[in-house]
């Protein structure tokens, strides 16, 4: 029946397929539950509903779907689209670690970290102010080399050409101003360790973790760059107020982060975080926040970027509030 439902989808008989998926889900079929989880999460065939998608992930996991069980634990740990329960997520992670080496590695990492019982860092590094004209700081050694290496190895979607947010429409698009490659660590694959990393970034930036967009991984090959631009989005109801850049490696030349209006160039070392403000408290753009990723001359530059909004960020589209 499940295969038949997929064949109906391929034949563009989607509504008939949905009826079968729902019937099978009522019988606790893990494949049907997993399919409905993905359909609701992505808004395919049905209106996008993250809360319902999260519930289907949980039900599919309980029915024996291992990937959905992992997603359910991740979402329980990071609190996206529902209640956050870090202690319960840790109990689930312990159970998963018994048969999954990757989950066991995450558990071992967390055990070595100095965290509160809610997954927050017990202490955060002190930032160094880099300019008197503009709130831009660097937190040296905020992440260890091993933690940066973990982010390299993290399973994520394939790299693709990086996009920008169109100021007129709010929709992402490819633009010659940005030539790097990007991938994202979206909420369902934001495992408890990555979530703890994001909570560290939130702590050092003085913001709430759910104000941040999904962690974006960027790769700059020789010649690739990001021309002068602002991270501020004109007209956005939920503005990007801060940007955090984690430097994942240093074995490249060129590629400095440049702030042309204040004559500042930054070349972070592995594990450093560069943090700067994009807007004033009243919502106006900070003109000195204009910046660029200079062209890489040799080697490959890797960074992870987290854009931080004014309040809780829930939309998958960068134009959303």
Folded structure, characterized:
A hairpin with a 6-residue loop joins strand 1 and strand 2. The protein starts with a helix and ends in a 12-residue tail after the last strand. The radius of gyration is 21 Å and the shape is globular. It is α+β, with helices and mostly antiparallel strands and 321 residues long. The protein folds into 2 domains: 111 residues, Serine Threonine Protein Phosphatase 5, Tetratricopeptide repeat (Alpha Horseshoe); 182 residues, Sandwich (Jelly Rolls). Helix 1 runs antiparallel to helix 2, helix 2 crosses helix 3 and helix 5 packs antiparallel against helix 6.
Strand-helix topology:
Layout: H1 2-10, H2 14-26, H3 30-42, H4 50-62, H5 66-78, H6 86-97, H7 101-112, E1 128-129, E2 136-139, H8 145-153, E3 160-161, E4 164-165, E5 172-173, E6 181-185, H9 192-205, E7 215-220, E8 226-229, E9 240-247, E10 252-254, E11 257-259, E12 264-266, E13 273-277, E14 291-293, E15 296-299, E16 301-309
Antiparallel strand pairs: 1-2, 2-13, 3-6, 4-5, 6-7, 7-16, 8-14, 9-13, 9-16, 10-15, 11-12, 11-14
Helix pairs in contact: 1-2, 2-3, 3-4, 4-5, 5-6, 6-7
A few lines on this structure:
This protein has 321 residues and is α+β, with helices and mostly antiparallel strands. The chain has helices at 2-10, 14-26, 30-42, 50-62, 66-78, 86-97, 101-112, 145-153, 192-205, and strands spanning 128-129, 136-139, 160-161, 164-165, 172-173, 181-185, 215-220, 226-229, 240-247, 252-254, 257-259, 264-266, 273-277, 291-293, 296-299, 301-309.
């Amino acid at each position: 029946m499940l295969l038949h439902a997929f064949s109906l989808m391929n034949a563009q008989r989607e509504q008939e397929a949905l009826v079968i998926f729902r019937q099978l889900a009522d019988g606790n079929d893990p494949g049907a539950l997993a399919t409905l989880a993905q359909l609701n999460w992505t808004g395919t065939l049905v209106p996008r509903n993250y809360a319902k998608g999260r519930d289907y992930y949980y039900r599919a996991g309980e029915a024996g779907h291992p990937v959905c069980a992992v997603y359910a634990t991740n979402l329980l740990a990071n609190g996206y689209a529902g209640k956050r329960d870090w202690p319960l997520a840790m109990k689930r992670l312990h159970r998963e670690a018994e048969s999954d080496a990757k989950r066991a590695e995450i558990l071992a990492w967390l055990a070595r970290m100095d965290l509160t019982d809610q997954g927050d860092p017990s202490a955060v590094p002190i930032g160094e102010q880099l300019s008197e004209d503009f709130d831009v700081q660097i937190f040296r050694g905020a992440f260890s080399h091993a933690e940066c290496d973990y982010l390299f190895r993290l399973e994520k979607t394939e790299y693709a050409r990086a996009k920008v947010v169109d100021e007129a429409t709010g929709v992402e698009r490819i633009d010659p101003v940005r030539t790097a490659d990007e991938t994202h660590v979206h909420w369902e694959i934001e495992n408890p360790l990555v979530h703890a990393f994001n909570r560290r970034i939130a702590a050092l930036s003085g913001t709430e973790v759910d104000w941040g967009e999904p962690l974006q991984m960027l790769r700059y090959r020789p010649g690739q760059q990001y021309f002068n631009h602002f991270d501020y989005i004109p007209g956005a109801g939920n503005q990007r107020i801060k940007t955090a850049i984690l430097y994942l490696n240093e074995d490249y030349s060129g590629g400095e982060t440049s702030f042309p209006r204040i004559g500042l160039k930054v070349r972070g070392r592995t594990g450093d975080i560069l943090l700067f403000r994009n807007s004033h408290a009243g919502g106006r753009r900070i003109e000195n926040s204009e910046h660029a990723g200079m062209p890489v001359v040799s080697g490959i530059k890797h960074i992870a970027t987290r854009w931080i909004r004014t309040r809780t960020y829930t939309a998958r589209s960068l134009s959303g509030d």
